[in-house]
Write a structure and sequence with these properties.
4-stranded antiparallel beta sheet; alpha+beta; 4 helices; globular; Nuclear Transport Factor 2, Chain: A; 6-stranded antiparallel beta sheet; 256 residues
């Protein structure tokens, strides 16, 4: 019975304690007057310090403009007359043209020279040949040209091109010349003068400017062709030069 009493007593004690707890007032009910608690702001208003503002001044510096590289001009496919320079006794022509993709042969050189000559009023060149003294295979084309309406011998206009048709030199002789004789002797008078020197048959004749020997000045004269073909076909033809004003035989030039 002792053990049972202890359990019963514990139960009774727990019952009394629960009743007492139920009868107690809540903590808020125990205080008759609640004193207001002071309000403490979470963030204090602290004036921000006045900091000096730095003034940044940027000094503008002029940067040099990039250097513009020169643009190489594109040369034309077909020849054009780029410039003409006139001097006392010669006119020089500047021709612009692209080189050809392959080297010229004789027909190609003649065609190229004809196109270039047309730019200054010339026709087909009188001669077109490859310069035997040129290691790079340059081409030479010539025209008789004219001064005061008379052709220049041997060539009043000379064109030199490289192997690919680029113009190296293109010029026209314009002097110096002696005055045109007044009056001029006739072709018949020139032929008579040549035959009188024993030059045999004369087939062609023309008036032309020429420098003889070491002369620096062109002189107007008759050029008379004296054919001289040998039986074996060798050409020993000659040119008889007769003064166009006095009918004097000035020189005889023969192929040897």
């Amino acid at each position: 019975m002792r053990t049972m009493w202890s359990i019963a007593g514990a139960i009774a004690a727990a019952t009394v304690a629960a009743a007492a707890f139920a009868g107690c007032a809540a903590p808020a009910e125990l205080a008759t007057t609640a004193s207001p608690s002071p309000t403490i702001p979470l963030l204090a208003s602290i004036p921000a310090p006045s900091l000096p503002v730095a003034t940044l001044s940027a000094t503008a510096t002029t940067q040099p403009s990039p250097t513009t590289l020169p643009v190489e001009p594109t040369l034309p496919v077909e020849p054009i007359l780029a410039d003409t320079e006139t001097f006392a006794d010669v006119t020089v022509y500047q021709i612009a043209v692209q080189p050809l993709p392959i080297a010229l042969d004789k027909d190609g050189a003649k065609t190229r020279a004809t196109k270039i000559g047309a730019l200054v009023g010339l026709g087909t060149p009188d001669t077109t040949l490859q310069d035997p003294s040129s290691p790079s295979g340059n081409w030479l084309a010539t025209w008789s040209g004219s001064i005061d309406g008379y052709p220049v011998d041997p060539a009043g206009v000379t064109l030199e091109m490289d192997a690919y048709g680029v113009v190296i030199r293109f010029r026209r002789i314009t002097g110096p010349t002696k005055p045109v004789p007044d009056p001029l002797i006739t072709e018949a008078e020139a032929r008579s003068a040549a035959l009188a020197q024993g030059n045999g048959t004369i087939d062609t004749a023309r008036l032309a400017w020429r420098r003889l020997g070491m002369a620096s000045t062109y002189q107007l004269m008759w050029e008379l062709h004296h054919p001289n073909i040998q039986p074996d076909g060798t050409d020993w033809s000659c040119i008889v030069y007769v003064d166009a004003g006095t009918a004097t035989v000035l020189d005889v030039g023969c192929i040897v």
